[in-house]
Amino acid sequence: MPISSEDRIKLFNQYSILHEIQPNAGWGVLAEIVRSGYEEEYYRIEQTVFDPLTVESCREVNDILSMHDSLQRDYFGNADQMPNDLKFDGFDGNNEARQLSYFRFMRDADGKWTHIAMSNERDLNSHFPVLDTYRRMLNAWQQLGSPTNPTQDQIDQVLAERVHPENR
After folding, report:
1. What pTM value is reported for the model?
2. 60: which residues sit within 8 A by CB, 6+ positions away?
3. 3-state SS assignment for residue 32
């Protein structure tokens, strides 16, 4: 990835400022790479920028969270009494990292979805792939009309999708 001299100056200034603010975060190394023009090391700059998460993927994450919001509605304020299968598992940090980072952004930086009960409040990482399960659950929930106050029968229908069809 070639970087023009003008862009290198801009990046150097930005990384230098970030290094002053966060001296242990690695910004100084990036500043030196762009200042010195070490093209072999430019990949490190690219690692600081993620591929975009599409509008469709963002909507899917929000739909999944909206579904969990509806499924948990009867337990708001009583999360300790909520059955574990109603708690949100998060997303897998290894296989669903973009969804996980978007969820963390919405929850931590934007203050959305903070009321959803988690099975693991510590890091929001399920530590196992869950997106396929959520998609099956979401499909069932949408076929029911995406109810905001689902009946127990509707909740049971959605939760039944947590079990893979080959294991039923």
Report:
1. 0.77
2. 99, 135, 138
3. helix
